[in-house]
Task: inverse folding
């Protein structure tokens, strides 16, 4: 297939303005100081850059929150068709998976089809055995057109976030793009802290640079297609790593393209993984969860054997990693002919540690527009 480096806009080349929040779950607790965690991004696409400059204010916009096919089509034409890591049906799929807990707001210039901003939040509910835990309100994709002038657009999107339960409190966590002075200053102004907890990275490997390892030790690991295993096997393992309800989303992700579940000799789940294939030819490991590196490699080997390493069919393989463990990206080494590498895309900054997230088993995250891990 034709290489698309010059045509495709991808997540990691975007500017991230990302915040993720945990909102107070217990009605007996004050909502003035909710616990928070955040992720978000600001995307600039070629189609968005083609419009005329416009000053946005409250009196010249129209906000749509009940998103239908018309709005999804406009988003695709304006932004998402330029991205390498999304399908046209993804946002509708996410909405179906999360239901009323998936909040979207599209901002248009009044009386036109001109889209100038999108804002997405997902509310994650803790499992019942985590009594007293707070809801996690995750701010996913935030996009504001670079054609927009005026400070009111930030107030408009902030109001949308507050309506979804996303609010600023003393206990905060956020992702920032890099160590730039402006980014740090904005973060400190909002949250009162610039403590770093983790960094997030992306790695790309062209399919022509991939290989199938010949001497991989897979003893005692048994791989099954995710479509052929009970829901409970997948959901229970996921709940050990992310202790909030997202079962419908996880099952859909594992069973859409290429998904696998790994078992040990005792029939216990020890990992699962999936590769999503996008129209651009990009293939993303979303996710790879496993008890150890050997299991993660065995899962990926099974998936790539089915896909084949055809550079005419597939463009590149992408994974998202973190700095919690040294092997969060180096585990892929037996599959590449080149040196392993990664590029920092954001930093997790906070004044407390994550609740209900176990990074030790995360070798690649779910899609960062929908989940923090």
Result:
């Amino acid at each position: 297939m034709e290489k698309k480096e010059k045509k495709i806009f991808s997540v990691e080349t975007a500017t991230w303005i990302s915040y993720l929040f945990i909102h107070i779950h217990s009605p007996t607790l004050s909502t003035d100081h909710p616990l928070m965690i955040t992720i978000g991004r600001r995307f600039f696409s070629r189609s968005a850059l083609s419009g005329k400059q416009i000053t946005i204010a409250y009196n010249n916009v129209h906000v749509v929150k009940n998103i239908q096919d018309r709005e999804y089509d406009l988003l695709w034409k304006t932004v998402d068709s330029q991205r390498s890591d999304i399908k046209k049906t993804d946002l509708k799929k996410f909405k179906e998976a999360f239901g009323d807990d998936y909040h979207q707001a599209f901002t248009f210039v009044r009386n036109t089809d001109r889209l100038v901003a999108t804002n997405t939040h997902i509310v994650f509910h803790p499992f019942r055995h985590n009594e007293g835990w707070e809801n996690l309100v995750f701010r996913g994709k935030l996009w504001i057109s670079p054609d927009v002038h005026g400070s009111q657009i930030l107030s408009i999107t902030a109001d949308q976030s507050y309506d979804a339960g996303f609010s600023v409190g003393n206990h905060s966590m956020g992702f920032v793009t890099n160590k730039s002075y402006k980014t740090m200053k904005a973060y400190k102004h909002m949250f009162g802290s610039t403590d770093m907890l983790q960094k997030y990275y992306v790695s790309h490997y062209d399919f022509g640079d991939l290989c199938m390892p010949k001497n991989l030790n897979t003893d005692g690991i048994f791989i099954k297609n995710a479509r052929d295993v009970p829901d409970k096997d997948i959901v229970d393992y996921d709940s050990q790593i992310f202790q909030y309800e997202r079962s419908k989303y996880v099952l859909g992700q594992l069973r859409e393209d290429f998904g696998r579940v790994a078992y040990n000799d005792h029939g216990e789940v020890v990992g699962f993984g999936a590769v999503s294939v996008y129209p651009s030819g990009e293939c993303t490991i979303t996710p790879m969860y496993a008890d150890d590196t050997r299991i993660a490699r065995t899962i990926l080997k099974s998936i790539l054997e089915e896909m084949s390493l055809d550079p005419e069919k597939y463009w590149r393989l992408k994974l998202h990693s973190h700095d919690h463990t040294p092997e969060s990206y180096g585990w892929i080494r037996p599959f590449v002919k080149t040196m392993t590498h990664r590029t920092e895309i954001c930093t997790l900054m906070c004044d407390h540690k994550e609740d209900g997230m176990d990074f030790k088993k995360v070798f690649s995250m779910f899609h960062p527009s929908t989940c923090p891990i």
